[in-house]
Every structure is written in C-alpha cells, then in structure tokens.
Amino acid sequence: MTPVVEVDSVSKLYGTFVALRKVSFSIDQGRCYVLLGENGAGKSTLLRLVAGLIRPTHGSVRVFGERPQDARDRIGYMSHAPMLYDEFSAEENLRYFARLYRGRPCMAPAAALRAVGLDAALKRPLGQYSQGMRQRAALARVLLAKPELLLLDEPFSNMDAASARQMLDLLAGLRAEGKTIVLTTHQRELAEPLADFLLTLQAGSVVSLAETAAGARR
What we know:
Elements: E1 5-14, E2 17-27, E3 32-36, H1 43-51, E4 58-63, E5 75-78, H2 90-100, H3 109-115, H4 131-143, E6 149-153, H5 161-176, E7 180-184, H6 188-191, E8 197-202, E9 205-211, H7 213-217
Parallel strand pairs: 3-7, 3-8, 5-6, 6-7
Antiparallel strand pairs: 1-2, 1-4, 8-9
Helix pairs in contact: 2-3, 3-4, 4-5
C-alpha cells in the first residue's frame, strides 16, 4: 500500500537558519504519528510542509502520491491558533467556513459540532468558551470538509486534564474510523496511548522514529 505521506530528505531554510535538516519518513494510512521535541525543534514547520502551506528548500513531500498543494482537498490542518472568530458562536463560525468549501461535500455545521461533543444550539460567542471547548470547535472546523489526513498542531494546548482527555478520546474515535492523524505535542504521556509511532525531532533533525507498544498491538 502506498504511504499517505512520504517525506524524502527534506530541508527547510529561512535565510541562514535551518529549520529542518534532511528529514525522511513515511506515514501509513489509518495510523497516528505523534511528533515530539522542544520548541524550535521543527515540529510545526514539518506539519506545515505536509499541509502544503510552505514548500521545502530541498527534498520532496508527497501526500496521497501528489504534491501537498494538489492534495489539499484530502487534508485537514489545525494550527496552534484556533483560526476562529471570537465574536461568532461555534455554529456561526462553521457556517462561515463551510461557505469557503463551496462545491465540496461537507458535514453540516451542527453535525461537525456534535462529532466533537459540542452543542450547536449554544449561542454564546466563541470568545466566552473554555480553552477545551475552543480546541474542540477548531477540530470541528477541520472535520467540516471530511479530510482523510488530519494534521494537528498542539491540539492539547492549554487544556485542563479533563478537556485533554476528551480531545484524546475524540481523536481515538477518528483514528478508529480510518483517519490518518499526525499531531505535535509537548505532552508525550498524554498522547502516547493514541500513538502508533513517536517521531522525535531535535534541532530540525529526526533523532528517533519508534513504534509504540499500542501501535504494535493494533
């Protein structure tokens, strides 16, 4: 089976700063890869390359056998920032983003919110949501367009333990449905039960790629 993602000897330079150094790995369908590393290790840069938001300086990235820019309809990207409007309710946000996907089959906004455990009838503005609710609303935005590959940058960021567990359960359910998930996190102990593989970056280089015990059993 062709890998969902193939990263081949990729380097990314910003002027003289090397964000990624000759990174190579592949991602199989229906699996969860967790990217680990300190701030500045290159995790977010790597995620943005796979999403097609930036291009490599050297090397190549293929997603579903294509350039990432040509596979965007199959990719869902959730940035570290929620990319939602604080003055709108969650459903109003999703209705707005659904219009941007005109011509593509999308989930109904209310259904996307239900999928992440939020009530579409909740009318208060997103700016009044807890951090956990905001992150789930951001995930609902990603799910609207029914992506096959989910790229999630710090989905557990600033969550309390209960909210982080809810997010983890949501992602486990999505992987069980056959979604391929790549996420970055500083919270290895939280994400490890979900992970099939742990990829650790240091100063822009891959220092380890290891299958987890849970991944070997699945």
